[in-house]
Model the fold of this input.
Amino acid sequence: MTDQPYDDRDGVIWIDGELVPWRDAKLHILTHALHYGSGVFEGERVYNGEIFKLNEHSQRLHDSAKYLDFEIPWSVEEINQACRDTVKAQGLVDGYVRPIAWRGAEDMGISAPLTKVHLSIAAWEWGSYFDPEQKMKGITLRLADYKRPDPATAPTKAKAAGLYMICTIEKHKADRLGFADAFFLDWRGRVAEATGANVFFVEGDVLHTPIPDCILDGITRRTVIGLAKKRGLEVVERIIMPEELSQFEQCFLTGSAAEVTPVSQIGDYHFVPGDITRALMDDYSRLVRGEQV
Done:
């Protein structure tokens, strides 16, 4: 990782069908997505030069756009190839890929039927999302003030830029107070997720995870469920209330950026990273690098 600003780097970014110099990848100030949040994105990891679960990410990008009432003018297969081309052009072996699609500046206003849909893909070297030393001990999470919204009030099935506004607010609060991240309940007061990752809890040999009815059914989430079942572990997807957190022994987050990250604290509740968490961390690490699991 580097402290170099993201708008001032060497390399190229794929925009609307061509690779352009990194510093020339710019938008007009009246871009619709900047004003009205009409953008959807993906976060993908590169391991050993290969993008993990690429097709699933590209398909979700298409699906997210449809939830926001626009269509991406590149097919899933074309997006897959553009992501590969970008990674190759950047010379990445391990890193991160960020495709994003958005309404442009051709029309302005809440109703903007004349806007052109744009697509860009950037890729860069990126290490652990959380501090590696802290991660192995289990990160700490502050309970967020905001709640994950009702699906009747927002397109919660989409990985939409606007839905992450409260994540930035809460992550900043958490950082200022010495926590690694923030943790959300949903609008009903049920356990939901962290700012950019799903959550699992361990009780005995059973994994518990919230039903993804107002949060993303994450690609990493589904992958880890598969790995757990391969180990013979029971996985229960259910409603989890915050007062139940005292009964769980272990807790971990899953996400493309977070990968599998142990948690030692959520608010007043404490957990100890254990064998199941460590085993799934190891299984996931081997899987993404093409090793036998």
About this structure: The longest strand covers residues 95-103.
